[in-house]
């Protein structure tokens, strides 16, 4: 094996060059050139590469922090939304229960009002029947009284003569006069 310097600078390979020259053999010089270029890139590019990697790292960390903040904000909003949902569900249940209670109360009030109306109508009907019954009884009494009066007048007129009639009227006038005094 040849040493690295032997492959780069070969004194005996180019006799016409006078002992010092460049080796143009690509296979021999390529690893050396690559190592020199890589060495220069690493030495000078290390700072740039570190800066690029640091910037990338900062952006990634910033993105992670922003994502975490957004996640926390989303979780808080979700919790608030869940709390509002629970509150709305509770209120809806209360409205439903109150609504059912209100419906039952209105139903009872309507039943009571209808019952009261029916009772009043029944009382009015009974009063009307009683009134009509009393009126019919009074009409019958009046007819009976009129017929009795007519019969009595007819009997009196046929039995009384004018003198008896005159005495009866005078006696009644006397009784009325005594009552007035």
TrEMBL record:
Main location class: membrane
Protein name listed in UniProt: ATP synthase subunit b, chloroplastic
Keyword line: ATP synthesis, CF(0), Chloroplast, Coiled coil, Hydrogen ion transport, Ion transport, Membrane, Plastid, Thylakoid, Transmembrane, Transmembrane helix, Transport
One Gene Ontology cellular component: chloroplast thylakoid membrane
Stated family: Belongs to the ATPase B chain family.
Segments traversing the membrane: 32-49
Subcellular location per the Swiss-Prot or TrEMBL entry: Membrane; Plastid, Chloroplast thylakoid membrane
Coiled-coil parts of chain: 64-127
Taxonomic source organism: Pistia stratiotes (Water lettuce)
Subunit (UniProt): F-type ATPases have 2 components, F(1) - the catalytic core - and F(0) - the membrane proton channel. F(1) has five subunits: alpha(3), beta(3), gamma(1), delta(1), epsilon(1). F(0) has four main subunits: a(1), b(1), b'(1) and c(10-14). The alpha and beta chains form an alternating ring which encloses part of the gamma chain. F(1) is attached to F(0) by a central stalk formed by the gamma and epsilon chains, while a peripheral stalk is formed by the delta, b and b' chains.
Note: In plastids the F-type ATPase is also known as CF(1)CF(0).
Database matches in CDD domains: ATP-synt_Fo_b
PANTHER family attached to this UniProt entry: ATP SYNTHASE SUBUNIT B, CHLOROPLASTIC
Record InterPro entries: ATP_synth_b/b'su_bac/chlpt
Membrane topology: Single-pass membrane protein
Any one GO molecular function term: proton-transporting ATP synthase activity, rotational mechanism
Pfam families: ATP-synt_B
């Amino acid at each position: 094996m040849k040493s690295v310097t032997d492959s780069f600078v070969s004194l005996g390979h180019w006799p016409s060059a006078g002992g010092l020259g460049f080796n143009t053999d690509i296979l021999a010089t390529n690893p050396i050139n690559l190592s020199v270029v890589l060495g220069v890139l690493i030495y000078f590019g290390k700072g740039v590469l570190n800066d690029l990697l640091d910037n990338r790292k900062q952006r990634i960390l910033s993105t992670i922090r922003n994502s975490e903040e957004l996640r926390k904000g989303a979780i808080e909003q979700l919790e608030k939304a869940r709390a509002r949902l629970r509150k709305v569900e509770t209120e809806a249940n209360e409205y439903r229960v109150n609504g059912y209670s209100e419906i039952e109360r209105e139903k009872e009030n309507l039943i009571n009002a209808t019952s009261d109306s029916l009772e009043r109508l029944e009382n009015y009907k009974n009063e009307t029947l009683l009134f009509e019954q009393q009126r019919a009884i009074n009409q019958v009494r009046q007819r009976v009284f009129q017929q009795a009066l007519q019969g009595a007048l007819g009997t009196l007129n046929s039995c009384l003569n004018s003198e008896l009639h005159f005495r009866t009227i005078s006696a009644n006038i006397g009784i009325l006069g005594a009552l007035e005094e």
